[in-house]
Amino acid sequence: MIAPRVLGCCASMRLSLASGVRTGIPAFHPARLVTVSAGGTTPPAPATASQDEKATRWIRTKDEALDLNHLITQPVWTKEERASVHRTHIVPQSVVDRAAYCSVQGLRFGFDFFSLYLFKSRGLFGQMRERDWLRRITFLETVAGVPGMVGGMVRHLHSLRLMRRDRGWIHSLLAEAENERMHLLIALNLRKPGPLFRAAVIVAQAIFTPMFGIAYLLCPRYCHRLVGYLEEEAVKTYSSLLDDIDSGKLPLFAGRRAPGFARTYYNLPESAMLRDVFECIRADESHHRDANHHFSDLGSEESNEFVEHLRHPRTWENLDRSRQSPETTKKS
């Protein structure tokens, strides 16, 4: 009677050891084997990542889906329209214009200095790599999404308080804010920022949002001119990024397909590359540039004629471009 019980217990123990169940002993796995030497047991050496894997570890590979039913914007740009975007500059004429321009130049210099873009763009301390560009784009888009939302909110409350129509400004400002937020989400499909970066974004929003809100209450013209000049700088930034891709300085960008998130938003084909996405973003920024310069020229009670400029791109032929001149100066 004892022998069958012993045999049954041994069989039960073998099954338990093999499955790792009931006894709490982990199941057998060939990868967990250790080697025995005179000095004792030595665990297997951990696998080391190759240099290529280390260089691309920061790139996000997960592609998120996008539902267009909840968006008010979906700009569609043809290849010809994207290629026709060029740098323009509104020459400051009034005191408000000069104040806005000086503010933007001061903000840009400070950001370029502390982010090292001022040096890396000139070949000092290395050069701008893919990680540097994504970090710059992500941070700038977190700021760029603020003015449209603040301006739309102020005008919304103004319309409610005075109990009269807004004449089409609110929709365009909110569309601009959403479009800038989509730029941010596209960048986040490429790289996930760390806690220090997120803290910097919180600090920037805590400072910029109330200051811009107060300024918009006091002088909307200054704010729209400010945003117009900011978008001029954005067009320069994305143009420099595209130039670096074309010159072979950013191979990871040049050889990467466009994320599905961006392809859906811009209605791009499956074969679209990441460069095409950056071209679309630059085209968006050129529209924000022209729109805000146009808003600055309008009176606060005049009607906005370009409500759907992001969903249905327009040529802005009726804008006064006599003060715009293509820039042939150094790249920034």
Beta-strand content? under 5%
Strand and helix order: HEEHHHHHHHHHHH
Widest beta sheet: strand line-up:
1-2
Low-confidence runs (pLDDT<50, min 5 residues)? 9-49, 51-55, 312-323, 328-332
Per CATH, the class of the domain at 75-297 reads Mainly Alpha
Can you count the beta strands?
Answer: 2
Dominant shape: globular
What do we call the CATH topology of the domain at 75-297? Answer: Ferritin
User: What is the helical fraction, as a range of percent?
Assistant: 55-70%
Say which CATH homologous superfamily of the domain at 75-297 is assigned: Alternative oxidase
State the separation between the terminal residues, measured CA to CA. Answer: 91 Å
How large is the count of helical segments? Answer: 12
Radius of gyration: 28 Å
- How would a textbook summarize the main sheet? 2 strands, antiparallel
Q: Compute the average pLDDT.
A: 80
Structural class estimated from helices and strands: mainly alpha
CATH architecture of the domain at 75-297: Up-down Bundle
Question: What is the compact description of this entry?
Answer:
This protein is mainly α and 332 residues long. It has helices at 2-19, 51-55, 79-83, 95-114, 117-120, 130-162, 169-188, 195-218, 220-246, 251-254, 260-266, 274-297, and strands spanning 35-37, 40-42.
